[in-house]
Amino acid sequence: MSTAFKNIASLLGVIVVATCLQACGKISATDPDDTVVVSLPQAAMANYAENCSACHGANGVNGAARQLADANYLASVGRESLINITTNGVPGGFCPGSGPASLAHWNPKQVADFVDGLLDAWGKNGVALSIPWSVKLSPAGNASSGQAVYAAACQSCHGAPNFKGVTAAGSVTDPNYLRLITDQGLRSAILFGRPERGMPGWSGPFPHQAADRKLSSQEISDVVAFLRSTASQKQ
Amino acid sequence: MFRNIKMVGTKMIGGLLGWTESRSGAIGFVQPILMHRVPRDAKWWYVFGSASLMFFSIQVVTGILLATMYAPSAAEAYSSLQYIDQQVPFGWMLRALHAWSSNAMILMVVIHMSQVFLHASFKFPRELMWMVGVLLLFCTLALAFTGQIMRWDQDAYWGLGIGAAIVDRVPMLGNQMRNVMLGGPYIGGATLSRFFALHVFVLPGLTIALIGAHMALILKNGISEMPKPGMVVDPKTYVVEYEERIKKNGVPFMPDAAQHDMVFCGLMLIIVGVLAAYLGPVGPNGIPNPTIIDANPRPDYAFLWIFTAMALMPPQIETAVLLIAPPIVVMLLLGLPLISNRGERAPSRRPGAVLAYVLIATALGTLTWLGVVSAWSPVMDAWTSLPTPVKYLVGRTPLEMQGALVMQHSQCRNCHSLGGEGGLRGPNLDNVGSRKSWDQLVRQVQQGGGNMPAYGKNLSSAETTAVVAFMTTLRNAGAPESTIPGAMERQSSPDQAPTSVASEAGK
Q1: Do A57 and B460 touch (CB under 8 A)?
Q2: Can you name the residues that pair with A199 across neighbouring β-strands?
Q3: Does B399 contact A170 at a Cβ distance shorter than 8 Å?
Q4: What ipTM was assigned to the predicted interfaces of this complex?
C-alpha cells in the first residue's frame, strides 16, 4: 500500500515541480538575513539543495565543507574536473558524488548541466590560479622546508606542531584531522583558504607577513608534506 | 431418449453415492455438520469466523503454489521472488493474493474475536472454544511474521534482527534461544530454512488441527445466541435451556445461516481480489544487506503497533516490558473465560468489558496509525539536504569541522535533529555536549544502544574522534561541557591503525 502511495506522491511531486519550473524562470533564494544571494538555475538549485547543501552550505557558503560559491575556486578547478568530482565524489574524502553509481543517480547530462549551472551562477569573473591546484600537477614537497613555511605563515593561528592547547583557528597537526583529510584537501585549503572562516588563501596576506607575500606552489607542497610528517612523529 | 439417458445418469450417480456412502459413511458424517441447528438470529454478526476460514483456505492454496516456485535459501530467495513477480505468468497476482488475503485473514480474525468478546460468547460452555481461538490467533500472527521473513528483504532482515534482540534479552537462556531461532548466532542461510519450515509445515499443520478442534467444539456446544439483557448464563441450567430454544426456534446451518456466510465471503473475496490486482504483491523491498544503512525497515501492519510502542518506550523499561508483558497478555487472553464464565452477556450490562475493549482497540489503533505516519521516524534524505547550522560551525577547529562532515556523511541527522531539522527518531543533538561527556559520546557512537545501532564498525577511530569532538562543542549558550571522568580520555594517538580514509588519502 505504502509503495502505491509513494508512487502517487512522487507523481504529484513531479507535476508540481514541472508546473513551478514552467511558471517561474528562476527560483530566487534569499538567505535568512534577506540579503540577496546569487541563485543557481532552478534545476541545479534543486539538485544542489537536495544533494550538496548539507555539507557545502545552503547557498554554497558557510558549510562544513569547502565553499563552492567561490569564483576563483571554480575557475581554477575547471569544468572538466568539476564534472569528475561531481560524478565520482572526492577520493578519500567524504563527498560521495552524485553520478550514476551514487545514491543520487544523476546521469552524465544532469551532472554536466549541474556543473554548468554552478559555473554560471558562482563562477562569473573567476580568475584561475597561476599555480596548479591539483596535487598531481604540483611539485613534490619537502617536509623540512615546509616546517619553516609553516612557522612563518600558519603557526600564528594554528599553533605550533602538536601543540595541544587552544589556538585561534584550531590545530591542523591533530593526527585525527590529518587522517581524515587528503593531501589534496590540505592543498586546496591552503590555496583557496576558507574566506567565510577568515582563513586567507595562498595569496595571503598571512598574519605577520608582508602584504604582497604569496606562497609558491613549491612552498604549499612543502607545507603539506610537513603536515603529513607530523602525524607520524612520536610525541 | 434424452429423458432415458438422464434417468440412467441419475441412477448411476445415485448408485455411486450409495456405494461410497455404504463403505465410508461420509454423507452420514457431513450431513449433521451441515444441518446442525443454529439460532435463528445468528445473522451478519456471525460471518467473520467463516471469512477467516475462507482466507485461510486461500492461503493454503496460494501458499502451495508459491512453494513450488520459491527457493528457501538465503542466496536465492530474493531472486526467486523477483522471478515469480516478473517471469511467471500471473505470478505477481499469486503473491499479491497471498499477501492481501493474509492481511484480510488477520483482520477477520480480529473482528471475529472482538465480536465474541463483546457478545461474551466465550462464557459457559464455550470456554474451550475461546482458548482454542486464542491459540489460532497466535498461529495466525506467527504465520504472518514468518511469512514476512519469507520475503527475505530489508524488512525481513531487520524484523529478524529485532526479534533476535528481543529473545536475546531473556536472562540466562537468551543466547541459546537466539541461536535456536536463527540457527546460529547470526542471521544466515539456516535462519531462512528454519522459518520456511515453520511457515510451510509446522504452523499450517498446527492451524489446521486447531481449526478442526474449534469446529468440533462448535458442533458440540452449538453457536451462541445473540445476547439479550437479562438472559443470564448459569452453568447449571444453560445447556438444557439452550437445547430447548434451539429445538424450538433454531434453523439448520445449511442453507439458512450459511447463506449469510456465503454472501459475505463472496464480497470479501472480491475486495481482496481487487486489492491484490490493483496494489500488487507486497515487497520484496530492498535487498537484505546489513551494510546498507539507507534502509527504512518496517514490520507488516499486524506488528506495526509493537514497533511504535518500542520506539516510544523509554529505553530503561524496554527489557522489563518485553519479558513481562507477553506472558501476562497470553495468560489474560487464555484465562479470560475462566475469570468470567457466567452472568450477563449483553454489552449494555458489561460496561467494564466494553470499556476495556474500547481502550485496547484505541491503543492498538493509535499505535498502528503512528507507525504508519511516523512523525518521529527518520528523515532519510537529511544527510545530504539539511545544512549543518552555520552557528555550529563558527569558531570550530579543523578537526571539529571534519566531525561535522562525519555527522552528515554517516547520516546521523536522518535520526537526530540539529537546529530543529532532521529526524526525530533519536534525541536532538543541539545540546548534546553538555549532556554527555567525551567518553559517553564515544561509547554511544561505537556501541549504540537505546535503539541506536552501533557505528563502531562503520566509523574509523579518527572519524569517531572527529564527530565526538564536534558534538562536545554543541552546547547551549553558557552550558558547561559535561565532564564526567572516565577511562577513555580524549586520545589523539598517532599509532592507531590507519583507516581506509587515511590510506586512500595517500602520501
Answers
A1: no
A2: A194
A3: yes
A4: 0.81
> Which string of b and e fits B175-201 if b means at least 16 CB within 10 Å?
eebbbebbbeeebeeebbebbbebbbe
Does the CB of A223 have a partner CB in chain B at under 8 Å? no
Q: How many CB atoms lie within 10 A of CB A60?
A: 23
Q: Cβ of A54 and B384 within 8 Å?
A: yes
pLDDT band at B138 (very low <50, low <70, confident <90, very high): very high
Question: In percent, how much of chain B has pLDDT > 70?
Answer: 90
Q: Across chain A, what does the average pLDDT equal? A: 80
The predicted pLDDT at position B374 comes to: 64
Q: How far apart are CA A149 and CA B453, in angstroms?
A: 45
Q: Which domains, ranges and CATH numbers included, belong to chain A?
A: 39-128 (1.10.760.10), 135-232 (1.10.760.10)
Q: Please tell me the distance from the alpha carbon of residue B106 to that of residue B91, in angstroms, as a whole number.
A: 23
Tell whether B294 is within 8 A of chain A (Cβ).
Answer: yes
Average pLDDT of B248-260? 86
Work out the average pLDDT over B218-231: 89
- Residue B360, C-beta contacts closer than 8 angstroms, at least 6 positions apart: none
Check CB contact under 8 Å for A179 and B462: yes
Domains and CATH numbers, chain B: 32-373 (1.20.810.10), 382-500 (1.10.760.10)
Q: Distance between CA atoms of B488 and A167, rounded to whole angstroms?
A: 24
Residue A67: pLDDT over 50: yes
Give Cα separations from B282 to B85, B224, B451 (angstroms): 10, 38, 26
Query: CB distance B408–A55 less than 8 Å?
Result: yes
Contact B465/A at CB under 8 A: yes
Q: Is the Cα torsion angle B331, B335, B336, B340 positive or negative in sign?
A: negative
Within 8 A of A56 by CB-CB distance, chain B residues are 387
Interchain pair B398, A231: CB under 8 A: no
Q: Which residue of B has its CA nearest to A55?
A: B387
Can you tell me the distance from the alpha carbon of B428 to that of A224, in angstroms, rounded to the nearest whole number?
A: 37
pLDDT tier, A6 (very low <50, low <70, confident <90, very high otherwise): low
Q: Which residue on chain B is closest to A231 by alpha carbon?
A: B494
- The sign one gets for the Cα dihedral A103, A107, A112, A117 is negative
The span from the CA of A134 to the CA of A183, in Å, is 10
Asked if residues B202 and B356 have their Cβ atoms less than 8 Å apart, the reply is no
Q: Is A171 on the interface with B (CB under 8 A)?
A: yes
Question: 475-494 in B: which are within 8 Å (CB) of A?
Answer: 492-494
- Return the percentage of chain B with pLDDT > 90, whole number: 40
Enumerate residues 6+ apart whose C-beta is below 8 A from A166.
Answer: none
For residue B465, what is the nearest residue in chain A, using CA coordinates? A176
Please give the angle made by the CA atoms of A30, A32 and A35, to the nearest 5 degrees: 50
